[in-house]
Each structure stands twice: as C-alpha cells, then as structure tokens.
Specification:
Strand content: 35-45%
CATH topology: Alpha-Beta Plaits
CATH architecture: 2-Layer Sandwich
Radius of gyration: 15 Å
Largest sheet: 4 strands, antiparallel
Distance between the termini: 18 Å
Number of domains: 1
Number of helices: 3
Structural class: alpha+beta
Strand order of the largest sheet: 2-3-1-4
Length: about 110
C-alpha cells in the first residue's frame, strides 16, 4: 500500500488555516486536516526571542501527492517562507491508510 504522509504547517490566523484546509481537502490533496488553534510559539527572530501565537494544521495525505500539497500550501500562505514539514509515517492502521489513499485519488 502507498505510504502515508502528514504535512504539518502553521498559519498566522484561523481564517487562513481553515481556508487552506478546506481548499486542500476539496481538491483531494488531503483526506482530512486537523487544526489546532492558538498554540504558543517561541522563535529566534532578528537577534531576539519572539513570542507569538500560531495555528497548526496537520494534513493527512499520501506520498504521491505530498509535494503538490506542499507547493499549494506555499502558494496560498501569507508568509514568504511558511513553515511546512513532511512527516513520513512508518506504520498506520490499514483501514485508515486505505481511506486516505482512496480520498486523495482522483478519477
């Protein structure tokens, strides 16, 4: 069976995260998306530690469309360098894995 990938991305607002998630599921680039609102983040920015809030979105997809999904998230993201990570899944429930593959396959 085809390999499953999680695409982890953060957004500056819930509106942006929801809009992007809806578009990617509608286009069948992701089978589903989990959105985690208002996470606190600390990062090194321009010589100082910055504190901010972000929205995390975890897109569930398959290897064959993961790069297209990443490109589309990048194209719609408000940041010029959006944080997007592809996380390979070594093992998944076979039924859920089959569902992800089925839902991200267009005819």
């Amino acid at each position: 069976m085809e390999r499953i990938i999680l695409v982890y991305a953060t957004f500056s607002s819930m509106v942006e995260a929801e809009r992007t998630s809806h578009q990617m599921v509608e286009r069948r680039l992701a089978a589903s998306v989990n959105i985690l609102p208002r996470v606190l983040s600390y990062s090194w920015q321009e010589g100082t530690v910055e504190r901010g809030e972000e929205i995390i979105a975890v897109f569930k997809t398959r290897m064959a469309v993961a790069e297209t999904l990443r490109t589309e998230i990048r194209n719609t993201h408000s940041s010029s360098t959006p944080p997007i990570f592809l996380v390979s899944i070594d093992e998944a429930d076979s039924g859920y894995q089959a569902w992800i593959v089925e839902e991200t396959t267009t005819s």
